[in-house]
Amino acid sequence: MRMNALLVGGSGQIGIAAARDLLQAGASVTVAHRGGRALPADLRGHVAEATLDRADPDALRTLARGHDLVLDCIAFTPADAEPYASLVGELGSLVVISTASVYLGTNGTWMDAATGEDDFPRFPVPITEEHPTVDADVDGYSPQKGALERALLAVDGLPVTILRPGAIHGPGSPALREWYFIKRALDGRRRVPLTDRGESRFGTTATAVIADLVRRAGEHPGRRVLNAADDPAPTALEIGQAVFAHLGHEAEFDLLPRGAGGPESTVGQHPWAVPVPVVMSMEAARRELDYAPIGSHRSTIGPAIDDMIAAIGDGDWRERFPALAHRYGADGWFDYDAEDALLGD
């Protein structure tokens, strides 16, 4: 029987990857979105499109009812779980995207609450789905995602799979962290500083991995929470090597200890520079969905690199990707004069 899938918020990076995966598997796909973003050319004419305001619960219920698979990419608060409570028995499988940042550190803090290295959350390696999550009744991305998860799991009989991705990468990303390396290759930089000696690991997640898990959850409905991450988790050095290999760029990595340039220096600081490893276990996905890694970070990063270079073209990367420029501190990544002074060039 041909799977009938609805992707809510499906014009973003996760929805696009899921649509491609589902189409390849022979599913019938409807992409629901506000209508402000055109789908890629390879999807137009192959998927149905529906205009949807996610904040309208009646519209969501009407559209979702009767689907074999519903993927919700844009549920963020416990209120966003409410429309599905009345659809028990009318959905084959619901998949909702959460985040690995819901995990509570053993020191009692979480990623949104951390202000620096000292209070950054500490986690076991790897983190399993049984690890405690944030349950603080406060605003913020991680606490609200945690509350969303609990609200979904509180609905009796709802066949929901909750996925917790890490640092997502893939075509259509609004904040491609790999720009730290891409721009250096484009600028012809031959020495690249990395703090923490390049050993930092902040679990990455290819959109292709999420898409694979979405399809498997649609084929095998259940009530479960699963990590969704590249396996194995790459180090910052391995990420840089993967980017340069794809671009055919050769460079020497200067593996610096943390704080090598002084307390005010940004030399070597990159978007995976966390003081402790953040690595998610994929054992539950293997057990629940017979998941097998579709490839390493190195084998899946290429389309994201090509997409970002094409998206920027001859423009200013700060204007094209404002979230990257401001949210991740990317304005401090490319102080080449300070790098040359520290590295002796």
Automatic annotation (TrEMBL):
Sample GO molecular function, one term: aldehyde dehydrogenase (NAD+) activity
One cellular-component annotation, GO: cytoplasm
Gene3D superfamilies: NAD(P)-binding Rossmann-like Domain
Residue span(s) of domain NAD-dependent epimerase/dehydratase: 6-200
Pfam families in the cross-refs: Epimerase (PF01370)
Source taxon at top rank: Bacteria
UniProt-listed PANTHER family: NAD(P)-BINDING DOMAIN-CONTAINING PROTEIN-RELATED (PTHR48079:SF6), PROTEIN YEEZ (PTHR48079)
Name under which the protein is recorded: Nucleoside-diphosphate-sugar epimerase
Species of provenance: Microcella frigidaquae
Top-level taxonomy: Bacteria, Bacillati, Actinomycetota, Actinomycetes, Micrococcales
